[in-house]
UniProtKB/TrEMBL annotation:
NCBIfam families: modA (TIGR01256). This is Molybdate ABC transporter substrate-binding protein. Residues 1-22 form the signal peptide. Keywords: Metal-binding, Molybdenum, Signal. Belongs to the bacterial solute-binding protein ModA family. Transmembrane segments: none annotated. PANTHER family: MOLYBDATE-BINDING PERIPLASMIC PROTEIN, SULFATE-BINDING PROTEIN. One of its GO terms (molecular function) is tungstate binding. Molybdate binds at residues 34, 62, 188. GO terms for biological process: molybdate ion transport. It comes from Planococcus antarcticus DSM 14505. The lineage of its organism: Bacteria, Bacillati, Bacillota, Bacilli, Bacillales.
Length: 256
């Protein structure tokens, strides 16, 4: 019975990871969901210089991906939207410390399917309507944690709680706004740049700590050389130019 339960646990873990069947011919990259669109372009350009390295992506919230790595899910490279999740893996020696490096930055915006009047005040939009606001789950999604941090700094979180719609990752917040399931949403500026449905954008006006995306090679990876090659591409001139085209900011110390 114990053996059967063990096999079932492994099967459930694998099914929860999406496409996670890493092998010698394929580099598996666990990637923050906010990087979904830019990674499609990154893969196309990477194949032009490294045609023998096949890429496979497993998208999700950074905390979920971190949890999968902690549970032993097969992963070669981790591209996170959260320095905190990367630091947790580094402390457990589950990623190679010398490989950790920032590769992008981002910021928060308020998004809508309708244009905002030019004189719109950010706090007024939030407080003086009954519209729903999509946000990431603050306990499990970096975007949600950043949002809660910002709102609490302005004493807005509790007044807005009854109107908040929670999403499982950054991509789902965008989907809620694009589909009209939420009137407003706090999303990354990079997602606002590439969305065709989102036409109203207001930058979050308060100063907060920079949002930095770090990448690192997973210690248990059997494909570390290929992982290093792709991480070099992402952090190199070509990769940085692609990230900039998709609305990402340069990471501290990095120049696209």
């Amino acid at each position: 019975m114990k053996k059967m339960m063990c096999l079932l646990s492994i099967a459930m873990l694998m099914s929860g990871c999406g496409n996670t069947s890493a092998n010698d011919d394929e580099l598996l990259v666990s990637t923050a969901s906010s990087l979904t669109e830019v990674m499609k372009r990154m893969e196309q350009e990477f194949h032009k210089v490294e045609p023998d390295i096949e890429l496979s992506f497993n998208y999700g919230s950074s905390s979920k991906l971190r949890s999968q790595i902690e549970q032993g899910a097969p992963t070669d490279l981790f591209l996170s939207a959260s320095e905190k999740d990367m630091e947790l893996l580094e402390k457990q020696q589950l990623v190679e410390s010398e490989s950790v490096r920032p590769f992008a930055g981002n910021r928060l915006v308020l998004a809508s399917g309708k244009e905002f009047p030019e004189t719109t005040n950010f706090a007024t939009v939030l407080l003086n309507t009954e519209e729903t606001i999509a946000v990431g789950e603050p306990d499990s999604v970096p975007l949600g944690a950043y949002t809660k941090q910002e709102f609490e700094s302005q004493k807005l979180w509790k007044p807005l709680e009854g109107r908040l719609v929670y999403a499982k990752d950054a991509r789902q917040v965008v989907t809620y706004v694009e589909s009209g399931n939420a009137d407003l949403g706090i999303i990354y500026s990079s997602d606002a740049v590439i969305s065709r449905e989102i036409v109203g954008i207001l930058e979050v006006p308060w100063k907060m700590d920079s949002i930095i995306y770090p990448g690192a090679i997973v210690t248990a990876s059997g494909n570390q050389q290929a992982a290093s090659v792709f991480l070099d591409f992402v952090t190199g001139p070509k990769g940085q130019a692609i990230l900039e085209q998709y609305g990402f900011l340069p990471a501290d110390g990095e120049t696209p």
